[in-house]
Amino acid sequence: MVKMTFVEASREALREMMQADETVWCVGEDLGRGSVFGQYLGLQDEFGPDRVADTPISEAAIMGAAFGAAMVGTRPVVEMRFSDFALCATDELVNQIAKARFMFGGQSRAPMVIRKPIGLWRSSAAQHSQSLESWYVHIPGLVVVCPATPQDNYSMMKAAIRCDDPVVYLEHKNIWGMEGEVDTSLDIELGNAAVRRLGADVTLVSWSDTANLCVQAAEKLAGQGVDAEVIDLRSLWPWDKETVIASVRKTGRLVVAHESVAVGGFGAEVVATVVEQAGDALRGPVRRLGAPRSLVAYAPNLEDKMRVTEQMIVTAAKETMGK
Amino acid sequence: MTTADHNTRRARDLLAMMERIRAFEEQACLAAERDKLVLGAIHPSIGQEAVAAGVMCNFNRDDILLSTHRGHGHTLAKGADPLAMMRELLGREGGCCGGKGGSMHIADFGVGMLGANGVVGANITIAAGAAHGLKLQGSDRIVVDIFGDGAINRGPFLEGVNWASVFDLPILFVCEDNQYSATTKTSSVTGGPGAAARAEALGLRATTVDGNDAEAVADVTAEITARIRAGGGPEMLHAITYRRTGHTSFDPAGYRPEGESEHEAKTNDPITRQRAVLAGMGLSADELDAVHTAAQSEMVQVLADAAATPFPADDMALQDVQDIGSPAQGAY
Ligand SMILES: Cc1ncc(C[n+]2csc(CCOP(=O)(O)OP(=O)(O)O)c2C)c(N)n1
Questions:
Q1: Nearest by CB to A91, which of B105, B122, B162?
Q2: What is the tally of structural domains in chain A?
Q3: What is the pLDDT of residues A135-169, one digit of tens each?
Q4: Domain limit, last residue, from A129, A157, A182
Q5: Would you call A67 and B129 a contact, using CB atoms and an 8 Å cutoff?
Q6: Is residue A176 domain-shared with residue A242, that is, in the same domain?
Q7: Do residues A160 and A113 make contact, with C-beta atoms less than 8 angstroms apart?
Q8: Which secondary structure element, helix H or strand E, spans residue A322, and what is its range?
Q9: Does a structural domain hold residue A203?
């Protein structure tokens, strides 16, 4: 076990993968200076400017060129800086990368990791705060992951680089400094959820930083006589239906919580799946928490209006129990 | 072999390739209009064959090509199998993409053809990246990326060409300028002097050529590719040609000035011009006709064979989406 922060964890995983495999390289803006959050600090010194490439401010070209380079046998790790800017490369991701293998009848592969930092992060306002994970889940061809702990960011970054599919890798900006113990020998298969807390009364399903909030909420609930199970999906596509359904079959109650807009969010998919496949096991109303369908504001009190809070999760869990 | 022999042989090869492309597309148009066998849109390059033949004869099988929606000629000239291509147009099993791509997504990785593209201009950044990947791997292979005159008005043109310039990549960008963007005359929607000047402004050497002169296209491309192979960095070739058909095989192109296309066909057909070159080298009309006939019978047979092929198995609809979370494994 080694103590690492969230940002150190994926950086260390990337470093090890670059040492082990010459075809892995990173491409994006300002990587030589570590990029916006220090995700690449020191890597250009270690691996040189060809393998840690500083690019023009050309998101479409970063994404498109990385794809071209992937098709000829390299494994790019693509940095988009903020998930918001990745929208400048939407055609490249959605129309090109995600579709090529299918359209070309299986001839091509796009083994790429596409990093798009997401989430609310101190007064960053509407163009630097959003979480669009549910969009990407909607695109066949993509793998979508949202690690929430240093361990997961370490092991899942490695798994994502090893994966032959394009992986949309969504790290939450609010937890770069989060510390945790990391077992560097632990492999995590993409698509497997983590049960972060065992419980008997209600299942809390979440991902990304909201999963951390659910763990806190569960501790609070424990003090109020509610034993909550917390499932951190970690991967949204593929996602671990089996673990969620088994948990709901045990608890009979479900709360889904995520930071992104509730309407059309992935929480709806989780709820629909549970109702379809384990509706008979539900013993209380289902609760779904997410942001209102509004935009993230700059002023802190307005920004807070977009947050799912620990208290909201606690309340929702109690509601499922008729408390 | 003397230089004269060499020249004659290349000239004959250029004619043969143009005749094959023409015959392929004539059959494809028949398959679309007469037989109703082509399921989606096809974009013929009839009258533009000198660009495909003249550029591609300077690229090896393991070099990389990316192309456009109007890419049948480029793909054939890169060495793809016309039967697999025709099957693809007809959405059949054994098509180069298993019938899943169609005309606008033809790819044949076996001959280095990494895809036509249904999105105008999208191939430019991808091609730059393919060149980037080859350079990173220390490969001596090079890339050719072909796009239309309309594509230079999309953002990826700026981003992709600048990228190639900044990273000094082994790539030839070819603007195949047929003067039309769908139903619009491109000059009416393009600021400034166009493709070559834009590339020069980004630090590339740019060459403009008569794109209906197969010999000239082959000659300048030979010089350019020699420079690129020697590490000279990216270049632009602006090949000026003319789109003789409508935008798609079904487009009557009523927006064009009366008689424009007919005039081009009569005075500026690349195949007719190449026959004149070969006649000047001493080939007889019979010899030239034989090249034509061979291409025609090859492609008539190709269409017949493609039409006799079944559609793909239904379960292919769920195959080749992704490895994990694949619908083929029931993940939906
Ligand atoms: C991004 C995008 N916009 C619009 C279209 C529709 N479209 C298909 S081909 C075409 C014209 C392209 O002109 P050009 O690049 O000159 O190529 P050409 O068709 O002349 O070969 C248009 C507008 C498209 N496929 N992609």
A1: B122
A2: 2
A3: 999 999 999 999 999 999 999 999 999 999 999 99
A4: A182
A5: yes
A6: no
A7: yes
A8: none
A9: yes
Looking at chain A, which residue has its C-alpha nearest residue B134?
Answer: A72
CA of B181, closest atom in ligand 1: 13
By the 10 Å C-beta count (0-12 exposed, 13-18 middle, 19+ buried), B1 is classed as exposed
Using a pLDDT cut of 90, give the percent of chain A over it.
Answer: 99
Mean pLDDT of A124-145: 96
**Residue A238 belongs to some domain of the structure:** yes
**pLDDT over 90 at A255, yes or no:** yes
Q: Which CATH number fits the domain that encloses residue A172?
A: 3.40.50.970
Contact B125 A73 (CB under 8 A): no
Same domain, A63 and A121: yes
Q: Are residues A166 and A261 in the same domain?
A: no
Task: Output the residue whose Cα is nearest ligand 1's atom 25.
Answer: B119
Output the CA–CA distances (angstroms, integers) from residue B198 to A137, B175, B176, B190, B192, in the order listed.
38, 11, 15, 11, 9
Same-domain check for residues A200 and A263 = yes
Q: Which range of residues forms the domain containing residue A229?
A: 194-321
The pTM score is 0.96
Based on the domain organization, do A102 and A224 belong to the same domain? Answer: no
Interatomic CA distance for residues A215 and B7, integer angstroms: 76
Same domain, A177 and A199: no
| DSSP-derived pairing of the beta strands A167-169 and A254-261 | unpaired
As averages over each run of 10 residues, the pLDDT of chain B (332 residues) reads 86 98 98 95 97 98 98 98 98 97 97 98 98 98 98 98 98 98 96 97 98 98 98 98 96 95 97 98 98 98 98 96 91 65
Query: What pLDDT is stored for residue B332 in this prediction?
Result: 62
Interchain contact B161–A (C-beta under 8 A): no
B54 close contact with A: CB closer than 8 A:
no
Would strands A24-28 and A75-79 be described as parallel, antiparallel, or unpaired?
A: parallel
For residue B150, how far is its CA from the centre of ligand 1 (angstroms)? 6
- CATH number, domain containing residue A284: 3.40.50.920
Chain B residues near residue A74 by CB distance under 8 angstroms: 133, 136-137
Measure CB to CB from residue A65 to each of B100, B163, B327 and give the nearest one.
Answer: B163
Secondary structure of residue B87 in the 3-state scheme: helix
Active site residue A172: no
Residue A293 within a domain? yes
- SS3 of B67, please? coil
Quick: pLDDT tens for B223-233: 999 999 999 99
Check if A100 contacts B (Cβ < 8 Å): yes
CA–CA distance, B280 with A272 (Å, rounded to integer): 75
A100 in the same domain as A51: yes
Looking at the structure, tell me whether residues A273 and A312 fall in a common domain: yes
How many residues in total does chain A contain?
A: 323
Q: How far apart are the first and last CA of chain A?
A: 41
Decide: helix, strand or coil at residue A155: helix
How confident is the model at residue B330, as a pLDDT?
A: 78
Atom index in ligand 1 nearest the CA of residue B243 equals 20
What's the mean per-residue pLDDT of chain A? Answer: 97
Residue A187 lies in a domain: no
* Closest listed residue to residue B136, CA positions, set A26, A97, A231: A26
Tokens 């960053």 -> residue: A124
Which residue puts its alpha carbon closest to atom 21 of ligand 1?
B148
Which residues of chain A neighbour B331 with C-beta distances below 8 Å? 238
| Distance (Å, whole) CA A47 – CA A20 | 12
Structural domain ending residue among the three candidates A144, A162, A182: A182
